[in-house]
Amino acid sequence: MAIKELKVFDQKLYKIVHAITDTIIPPGGAFDVDPNVVDPVQLFDNYIDSMSTLQLKAIKAVIYTIEYMPMATRLKRFTSMTPDQRLKYLQGWENSRIFSKRNIFLVIKMLVLMSFYSDDTVADAIHYHPECLIKD
Amino acid sequence: MLFTYNDITKDVVEKPDVCIIGSGAGGAVMADVLSGAGLDVVVLEEGGYYTKDRYSTYKPAIAMKILYRDYGATIAFGKNPIMLPLGRAVGGTTVINSGTCFRTPDNVLSDWAERYGVENASSKEMEPYFQQVEKTINVMPVSPQVLGKNGLIFKRGADALGMSNGMLMHNMINCHGCGRCAFGCPHDAKQAVHLNFIPSAIRNGARVYANARAEKITVESNRVTRIEGSIINEQTGNKLFKLTVSPKLLVLAAGSIYTPYILEKNNINLSPELGKNLTIHPAVRITAMFDEIIQGYKGVPQGSYVDAYSSEGIILEGIFVPPEIGLPILAPIGMKNKEIASLYDHLAAFGVMVSDKNSYGRVKVGVDGRPFITYHFDPYDFKKLVKGIAIASEIFFAAGAKTVNPAIYGIKEFTGPDDVAQLFTKKIGITSVEMMAFHPLGTARMGELKSHTVVNSFGKTHGLENLFISDGSIFPTSLGVNPQITIMSFSLRNAQYIVENKEKFLNHD
Question: Of B434, B350, B460, which Cα lies nearest the Cα of B75?
Fold first, then answer.
């Protein structure tokens, strides 16, 4: 897929973030959206565009850590793993006994999912149609 | 007049009687009363000016990006970092709060008088201020027509268990039950202060500057003489123009985080207590899955409450957020996330909030120059939170829940009321619970006991002759209830005190 209108991530980061978003919200399952219509990386990128330089540096640092940390134990980067390995690896972050590791991952997960579920196509797919109880 | 960065074409220089930093619950009321008394008032607000036309175009996640500080992710660090969402807009946090209104509990007012020497603030003395504020922002109970099924279900459970509960009071006119209180009310039904006190102040002649960041405060001969800052481009965050205000009196109303921060940053050390004694009302959200369709995002998210345990400092209040805000926290990654997303219509949620009895925090200037917040969550208060989680879980099961997610790391979702006992038999660490907090208070507490307080009973700082503080930071202890009525009522009272003594505070020769 062509990289479009990214404000924060460069091509290298795009690939890593794509692997992360694909693991957090994998294709298939209870609902699906066309990846040509909804690109979670672009949604994530556009959502964080007005963060401070310091905040963006921290987010990028976490993304690189996710990518390179497995080199120490598995001699593989995150992007080189199979989808199953990626899921297990990120579940390791999500359920880590180390509180700070769990929370650092939570930040990435929150930003990815907040931007993803804000998309109209995704809202349609989960039948989320907010409306007021009393109509005008 | 109200100015945003779009209206300003050159450096701003003002010489008003009074400058107020912050336009939230404290600053807006001050601005209205002081301008109404004929004083020349300038209000500086770092956030932008937003109206219902803009809110209605924002999805919740976008509203968090625009109307909240730091995307709603201001954090109090400690053993367990706690998210502390703060508003940043004309109207402050009242623009994005739940709209819940409680008067200051009588026992809290008595405690302040006894322990800190707070004068003229008994329930009886505060009564006219409560009444006037409630009238101005139209406080009324949430009607069952707009409560929504999330609130009704919890009420059903509480009733089944015989627990005291009811509809919460809100500041609202003609609420449509859109479920968006925390993201800017699209109908202006929620009566945030930018809809009443601020317009009234502007009619009185006050000048409100949005996108105006106060940075430097100059003190000479024990008086504040000048505030310098910048007009900020709302889109880029870039500084556009310089701002210089030379008032006769300064009122700081930037909230319990930014009021002590700006003072410390400017080396205005009013008291060793400044920045200390932060209370936040730690809270947690419990979710439950039902067979029936709930669509909790329709209706007032915080419309009802259970007060059966309020004497113990535990209060349960409605809370429901749309999927883009809820799913990142409550659903794990992978297929399970999509599964829960597709069942979102069947979810119910309620909040547990505890008063900070022994817990405390602190605000300092961090190494990056931004506020650094720490919070020590005391085990005694944590036990109350766990008890609150147990109560909420039991209520959900009594209401017919299939499963309850207690939001505790290491504890699987409950499948029946018997599972709730785990909360008391298993060891649950403070770091296991996913917490939030919404009511920072207490970092510049008031009272006549100078060694323990930063301002006097009317918000005047002990150290400087012409500096007042008028926000939640002046409250000596945790309230145990949502604070907006308390903040507005004390601001009203303290503003009248300034008016009555204006010769003393404004004239300096």
Answer: B434
B61 and A115 within 8 Å at the Cβ level: the answer is yes
Residue B509 has pLDDT above 80, yes or no: no
Residue pair B476/B13 in contact by the 8 Å Cβ criterion: no
Residue pairs between chains A and B whose CB atoms are closer than 8 Å: 118
**E-assigned strand segments in B96-206:** 139-141, 165-167, 169-171
In the numeric block, the tokens 């504040």 are attached to: B224
Full residue range of the structural domain in which residue A68 is found: 11-24+38-121
CB A25 within 8 A of CB A1: no
Interface check A75 vs B, CB under 8 A: no
Q: What is the pLDDT of residues A57-85, one digit of tens each?
A: 999 999 999 999 999 887 899 999 999 99
Active-site positions of B? 439
Summarize the confidence of residues B335-339 as an average pLDDT. 95
Establish if A27 touches chain B: CB-CB under 8 angstroms: no
Would you say residue A66 lies in a domain? yes
State the nearest Cα–Cα gap between A1 and chain B, in angstroms: 22
Token pair belonging to B203: 């009619």
Domains along chain B with CATH numbers: 2-76+84-97+121-136+192-277+460-470+477-503 (3.50.50.60), 143-178+282-354+378-434 (3.30.410)
For residue B139, what pLDDT band results from cuts at 50, 70 and 90?
Answer: very high
- Name the A residues in 97-116 with CB < 8 Å from any B CB: 99, 102-103, 106-107, 109-116
State mean pLDDT over B124-128.
Answer: 98
B68-123 pLDDT, tens per residue? Answer: 999 998 999 998 899 999 999 999 999 999 999 999 999 999 999 999 999 999 99
Q: Give a yes or no: residue A101 inside a domain.
A: yes
Nearest to B337 among A24, A55, A128 (CB): A24
* Partners of residue B344 in chain A, C-beta under 8 Å: 126, 128
pLDDT above 80 (res B459):
yes
Count of H-run helices and E-run strands, chain B: 15, 23
In a domain, residue A76? The reply is: yes
Structurally, chain A folds into a number of domains equal to 1
Largest distance between two CA atoms of chain A? 60
Q: Distance between CA atoms of B219 and B208, rounded to whole angstroms?
A: 23
Inter-chain touch A91–B325, beta carbons under 8 Å: no
Distance, CA of A121 to CA of A41 (rounded, Å)? 15
The verdict on residue A65 lying in a domain is: yes
Contacts of A95 in chain B (CB under 8 A): 409
Q: Give per-residue pLDDT as tens, B281-327.
A: 999 999 999 999 999 999 999 999 999 999 999 999 999 999 999 99
Say which residue the tokens 């919740």 belong to: B60
Chain A residue numbers touching B342 (CB-CB < 8 A): 30-31, 126-127
Mean pLDDT of B363-374: 95
Q: Which residues in chain B have Cβ-Cβ distances shorter than 8 Å to A52?
A: 237
B75: tokens are 């954090």
